[in-house]
Amino acid sequence: METLSALLHGFSVALTPYNLMWSAIGVTLGTAIGVLPGIGPALTVALLLPVTYNLDPTSAFIMFAGIFYGAMYGGSTTSILLNTPGESASIVTALDGHAMARKGRGAQALATAAIGSFVAGTIATVALTFVAPLMVRVALAFGPAEYFALMVLALTTVTAVLGDSLPRGLASLFFGLALGLVGIDLQTGQARFALGIPELLDGIDVVVVAVGLFAVGETLYNAARHRFEPEEMYDLKGSKWMSREDWSRSWKPWLRGTLIGFPIGALPAGGSEIPTFLSYLTEKRLSKHPEEFGHGAIEAVAGPEAANNASAAGVLAPLLSLGLPTSATAAIMLAAFQQYGLQPGPLLFENNSTLVWGLIASLYIGNVLLLVLNLPMAGVWVKLLAIPRPWLYAGILIFATMGAYTLNNNLVDLVILWVIGLIGFGMRVLDVPVAPCIVGLILGPMAEQQFRRALAISQGDLSVFVTHPISLALLLIGLLLILVPVLLRRRRAAHLPA
C-alpha cells in the first residue's frame, strides 16, 4: 500500500501540465533523434544533457525518461528501414526487421516494434515500481565498507560486460578514474593534476566528458565509418497496419520478451544486449516457422524489441535504488544525476521521493505518449532519415559544442570537450568501450571517499572490507566478473586445435 500511495503521488507530480509538457517534449525529441542513423539512446541523452541544465530536477528527469524511452523506440526505425542499428541491442531487430522492409512489410515491422515496446515498457515499469523499493530496503543496511564494495562491483560490472575485451575495458575504466582525480581533494584541500589551470580546480565536468565521448567521439566515428557507404532506405508500402496473423504471431513474443528483458536488465551484469539475443533464440526455438528467421519473421522483431524496452526499465531498478549503472545509457543517466548534485540510492528515495516517484510515474505516461506518436506518425519519422548525413553530423557537433560552452561559459570546457571527443573517436576505432570511462569518472571519487571513510571508522584496518558479509559478497562477485571471462577464454583457447 505504501508503494501504491507513493506511485499515486508520483502521478500527481507527473500529470501537472508543466511536467506533462516536458514528458511530451522528451518522448518527441527522443524519438526524433533516436530515429537518426547511428544515434542510440546513450548519445541522445548525452547530447541533450546541457539543454536541461537550468531546469527543475524533477522536470529534467521526467524529460530524460521520455528521451530514454523515445530513443529506444526510435532506434528500431533505423534498424528496420536502414539496417543501421543505433546501438548493439538493436542488432537483433535489424536481422529480420530489415528483411521485412525489403519485402515491403516495413510498416508491419515498425508496428510490432512499437506495440511490443509499449506492452513491454508498461509491464516492466510495473515491475520497477515494486522491485526498486525492495532493493532500497536492502541498501539501507549498507555502511561505508558496503558502499565501497558496491561501487567496485559497479565499476567491474560495466568494465566486464560492455565490450568484447577485458583489457580494453580496464583501459577505459582507468582513464575515467584518472579524470576523476583532477581537482581539489575534498579531505586534504590539495589540488591534484590541475596543471595550474584554475578552471580545473573544481574537477572535470562529467557532462562535458559525456558529451565529448558520446556525442563528439561517436559522431566523428559514424561520419568516418559511413563516409563511402551508400544509403539504401526502404519506403513504407501498402497497408500500414498489422494483419490478424501478425497479431497472433506477435503477442506471445511480446510477453516472453518482457519476461526475459526486465530481470536480466536489473541484474548487475545484465544490460540490454543479452536479453535481445536470448529472446531471438527463444522465439526461433518456439516458432512454427523457424525457416523464416533471418528472412523476415515478425516474431524475430516482436520478441527482441520487447526484451530491449523491458531491459531499459530493468536497468533503472539498480540505478535508482543502488546507484549501479549496468549499461552505457544508465551511465549517462548517472551523469545527469551528478549534474544536479544527486546520488541515486536509498537516500534518493528518502530525500527526493517526489523526483523518484514522479520519474517512475512519467514512464507510464511516456509509454502511452510514445504509442500515440509512433503508430500514426511513422511516416513522419521516416522522413527524418532523408536528412543528408553530412548535415546531420555537422549539426550534432555544433549543438554539442554550444551545449558544452553554456554549462560554465568558459573556453576550457570547449578544449576539454574536443580533446575528450578525439580520444573517444580513437577509442571507438580501437573498439575500446566508452561507458567504463564515464562510470569511472563518476564513481571513482565516490569510491575513494567511502574507502577513506571506512578506514577512518576502522582506524586503518583493511580487514573491514572482508569481515562485513555484504561487503565481502559484493567484492567476490566483482572479482568473479573479472576472472570468469579470462578463465573461459583460456579454456576455449586450450581446446582449439593447434
Model description:
The model has no long low-confidence stretch (mean pLDDT 81). Strand 1 and strand 2 form a beta hairpin. This protein has a two-stranded antiparallel ribbon with strand order 1-2. The protein is mainly alpha-helical. It has helices spanning 2-14, 17-35, 41-48, 57-82, 91-102, 106-139, 144-161, 166-180, 206-225, 244-266, 273-286, 299-322, 328-339, 346-351, 353-374, 378-384, 389-408, 411-429, 435-457, 464-467, 469-495; strands at residues 183-184, 191-192. It is 73% helix and 1% strand. It has 21 helices and two strands.
Major sheet: arrangement of strands:
1-2
- Sum up the overall morphology in one term: globular
**What profile does the largest beta sheet have?**
2 strands, antiparallel
Total strands: the figure is: 2
Radius of gyration: 22 Å
Strand content: under 5%
Low-confidence stretches: none
N-to-C span: 63 Å
Mean pLDDT, as a whole number?
81
Instruction: State the helical fraction.
Output: over 70%
Q: What letter string, H or E per element, gives the SSE order?
A: HHHHHHHHEEHHHHHHHHHHHHH
Category by helix and strand content: mainly alpha
How large is the count of helical segments? 21
SSE order and pairing:
Layout: H1 2-14, H2 17-35, H3 41-48, H4 57-82, H5 91-102, H6 106-139, H7 144-161, H8 166-180, E1 183-184, E2 191-192, H9 206-225, H10 244-266, H11 273-286, H12 299-322, H13 328-339, H14 346-351, H15 353-374, H16 378-384, H17 389-408, H18 411-429, H19 435-457, H20 464-467, H21 469-495
